[in-house]
Hints:
Distance between the termini: 104 Å
Mean pLDDT: 79
Largest sheet: none
Number of strands: 0
Structural class: mainly alpha
Radius of gyration: 37 Å
Order of helices and strands: HHHH
Amino acid sequence: MADLPEATLAPFRCMRNNITEEIHADISGKAIGGAQDAVRMQRVVSFYEKLPRGPAPKRSAKGPLEWYQQRYMGDNPSPMPLLHLIGGLTLLGYSFEYYFHLRHHKNNAH
Length: 110
């Protein structure tokens, strides 16, 4: 870098000075592993030691919707909800058809 002119090196010297200004000489008292950090780390370790280990226990269903989700969409999902939806829409459609049209033909022909 000695071959480069002074004007070319000027921006790099400025950057080097800014970087050295950011690093403080008195960081030894606040280094990681000091007394304050050791106490704080011990609290974190004791918190994590109290947590349960292993897989979480299975939750029991608290209502009909949760029971349905556990039964058909849980660990072993099945296509039954799709069939239930098709059956429910068929029943709903027939009930509408009966109310709006078929009940008028119950006792007399069209």
